[in-house]
Amino acid sequence: MDSFPTIAVISILVLFLANNIQTEAQLSPTFYDATCPQALDTIRTSIRRAVSRERRMAASLIRLHFHDCFVQGCDGSILLDETPTIQSEKTARPNNNSTRGFEVIEAAKREVEKICPGVVSCADILSVAARDASVAVGGPTWQVKLGRRDSITASRSAAESNLPSPFANLRDLISNFKNKGLSARDMVALSGSHTLGQAQCFVFRNRVYSNGTDIDAGFASTRRRQCPQTVGNGDSNLAPLDLVTPNSFDNNYFKNLMRKKGLLISDQALFSGGSTDSIVSEYSRNPRTFLSDFASAMVKMGDLEPLTGASGIIRKVCSAVS
């Protein structure tokens, strides 16, 4: 006679626990409100300090977050150094001698550890840092969802296969982002982060010496000055992705594309007679739409495969499993 009530109670408890686990696994902007209420202010201060020292760092931090999320999800795996058991993503072709800002994230982590040891993940610090870097150079803000935990692994091979190539055509770019649950519009908006930062000669050499119809002749000539044609000569020489306002977050990147002045092959692919031309045109006319879409796309990207709950760890330092 007592079996039905007992089963019913057990079912209710199981349902309650399942709902609780699901709730705990969701990212939330208020995740640290009780456990480390000063975390966001502390990170913001650290990032502002770094960007004030070097404006280019804003672009580097946004890119670092992107390169983290596209490999194993937003789990801080890109921050891990090489060990006998870890093949660091830092040495993958898209990252080697190119991704920057690791020391900025470590500095922010040290400041947070002083006030809340072992509470805030490196993955979350990197996510917040990207938002704060955007704001520091006049870009949009967004509400960062928190509660990610840190990976104990990295994948150099996944970094080499998952990250978009600077030589990619539009079809491959759309496919690459679609594989991560991001739309073509998200892809164009996120590409707008190239309104900041610089690129090395070896990734734009082919474009500026192509004599193609999709590049402005004067622009190509200007870029050749920093980039000798001979491979191996001046490979690491830098040129701004946005010639006009390389240290300000604005919509000039899209205006440049419409004038055939995209620096990378993958930049100009967004405005080359294809399906994304209309989005580029819209963003070039409506900066508010671009800033809003960029913020939304960054939130979506930040949701990629986070480690939550009992998965992963909270690293003491971001470069090592500790």
TrEMBL record:
Query: Among its keywords, does the record have Cell division?
Result: no
Q: One GO cellular component term, please give it.
A: extracellular region
Q: Among its keywords, does the record have Secreted? A: yes
According to the record, the signal peptide region is 1-25
> Keywords on this record?
Calcium, Disulfide bond, Glycoprotein, Heme, Hydrogen peroxide, Iron, Metal-binding, Oxidoreductase, Peroxidase, Secreted, Signal
| Sites where the protein binds Ca(2+) 2 | 195, 242, 245, 250
Q: Which residues bind heme b?
A: 194
Q: Site Transition state stabilizer: give positions.
A: 63
Functional note = Removal of H(2)O(2), oxidation of toxic reductants, biosynthesis and degradation of lignin, suberization, auxin catabolism, response to environmental stresses such as wounding, pathogen attack and oxidative stress.
Protein's name according to its UniProt entry: Peroxidase
